[in-house]
Amino acid sequence: MANAPAQPPQGPASEGLESHDLANGSGYAAATEHGGAGDHVAPTALGFNDTGWVGIAALVVLIGMVIVRVPMTIAAMLDKRIGEIRHQLDEAAALRREAEALRDEYAARARSAEADAAKMRENAHHEAAEIVAKAKADTEQLMDRRARMAEDKIAAAERAAIAEVRARTAEAAAAAAAALIAERHGAESDKALVDRAIAGVGRLN
How far is CA 62 from the centre of its chain? Predict the structure, then answer.
């Protein structure tokens, strides 16, 4: 006749053992491990049964995922921020290049304007000098012409006056000769009078 399976001890000692085994995750099977060979007892390791180890493994996997994902997320955020900053720097560099190009363009225009202004001033001075020189030459030529015209007029007036004086002298001489001839009516006296008149006219010439 087979012996009846051993019963777990009763009383306060048994309750304390069960509480200790439940806290370690082994349950009643661990309390009866040494009580009899007929009951199935779940294996434990470091006080954790299969369910405990599954939970620990899940926790480890979760922690591993967090450890892996967090740096990747942070790296992605940093890469995105770095890309934005790089884009902003590129835009700033492009704006700076445009500003420098505009500055160089306006500087070149200013230099060109200064060169044009200097050339215009030089041309204006040259043209003014030419105008003054031409006006001076024209004035001198005009004065020379006026002087020659005045001299010609004076010479013509002198010649006219001399001719008039000669004509009046000749008329006076002729009138005097005619008067003498009319008074004397002599051939010899007329001849002498004519000779004197002719001699007087010769002296005037």
Answer: 62
pLDDT in tens, 68-122: 777 788 888 888 899 999 999 999 999 999 999 999 999 999 989 989 999 999 9
Token representation of residue 77: 């955020």
pLDDT digits (tens, 9 = 90+) for 117-162: 999 999 999 999 999 999 999 999 999 998 989 999 999 998 899 9
Query: Crossing angle of helices 187-204/50-184, nearest 10°?
Result: 160
Domain tally, the chain? 2
Distance separating alpha carbons of residues 189 and 65, to the nearest angstrom: 173
- Cα–Cα dist 30/49, whole Å: 11
Domain encompassing residue 193: 167-204
Tokens of 61: 């996997």
Say if 42 falls within a structural domain: yes
Q: Which long-range contacts (CB under 8 A, 24 or more apart) does 37-45 make?
A: 38/5, 39/5
Can you tell me the distance from the alpha carbon of 106 to that of 125, in angstroms, rounded to the nearest whole number?
Answer: 28
What does the CA dihedral 176, 177, 178, 182 come to, rounded to 10 degrees? 100
Assess if residue 15 is contained within a domain.
Answer: yes
The SS3 of residue 69 is helix
Which parts of 4-49 fold into alpha helices (H)?
12-23, 27-31
